[in-house]
Amino acid sequence: MKPNTSVFIPVRLKSKRLKNKALKKIEKKNSIVWCAESALKIKNIKNVVVMTSKLKQDNPLKLINFKKNIKFFRGDANNLILRFLDAARKFKVKTIIRVTGDCPFISHEILDFLLKSHKKNNADFTAAKNYSVGTSGEIIEVSALKKLNKNIKNFKFSEYMTIFFLDNPEFFKLNLVNLPKKYIRDYRLTLDYKEDLKMFNKLVLRLKEKKFKINLLNIFKVLDKYKSLNKINSKKKLVYISKKFRKDILKFTKIRTWITN
């Protein structure tokens, strides 16, 4: 049976903290290319889809030469959930592995583990409970995403679709997974600031010096040994996990009335 699972990587060129971060070079390769090629290593997937908007500002992404199994899709600029559904329809996908485009070294090891758990538990939504920022993703059933799309009143925060599922456990079968300890560290492996970019470039150089394959365990091995690398960006924090942010958007993410049809 052919796989009906694809990796969807939403990416835009609107970042204010680090302009055009998806195009930034990490050792001569665009960060979004690192992300997509990392995702290609996930087992039992149909393809990887890099998805952006139809806006002119995102046109430079179209010029990137991706590998054969990395598809390019353009959709709704404001409603990310609709963009996902349109892409799922085009590529005939039933299960989505959602990976954000600012994570160049997403872990195929973690996502293989999550996908197995997702299928085993027949879940609507699967995510890891704890992980290093920038290494994991979520598994989402397209059927669940369709239900979510029907029931959201305001799509202002649709890019945080994970939160919509977590805030409505009564409507979805959630599967929150404890990862093996070997896959967890307190490192920052996402690209939002110039410090992140600096760290990534130094990290890849170290990996190449050691002749290590670029995978999660080898990344941890280098960061464990060379503490100065982690110090470059460790003080930068994620905005969306703050208690204030979560409280502020609850009025948008919490579904009050459930529409079934």
Describe the structure.
The chain has 9 helices and 9 strands. α2 (80-91) runs antiparallel to α4 (142-151) and α6 (194-209) runs antiparallel to α8 (227-233). It has a 7-stranded mixed β-sheet with strand order 5-4-1-6-8-7-9, sandwiched between helices. It has a two-stranded antiparallel ribbon with strand order 2-3. The protein is an alpha/beta fold and 261 residues long. It has helices at 31-39, 80-91, 108-120, 142-151, 161-166, 194-209, 216-225, 227-233, 243-253; strands spanning 5-10, 25-26, 29-30, 48-53, 70-75, 95-98, 125-128, 138-141, 174-177. The protein has one domain: Spore Coat Polysaccharide Biosynthesis Protein SpsA, Chain A. The chain is globular and about 55 Å long.
The CATH superfamily is identified as Spore Coat Polysaccharide Biosynthesis Protein SpsA, Chain A
By CATH, the topology is: Spore Coat Polysaccharide Biosynthesis Protein SpsA, Chain A
Provide the residue-averaged pLDDT: 93
Q: What percent of residues adopt helix (DSSP H or I)? A: 25-40%
| Number of beta strands | 9
> How would you name the oligomeric state of the polypeptide chains in this document?
single chain
- Based on CA atoms alone, the radius of gyration comes out at 18 Å
Distance between the termini: 31 Å
Strand order of the main beta sheet, please?
A: 5-4-1-6-8-7-9
Order of helices and strands: EEEHEEHEHEEHHEHHHH
What portion of the residues fall into strands of 2 or more residues?
5-15%
Q: Per CATH, which architecture? A: Alpha-Beta Complex
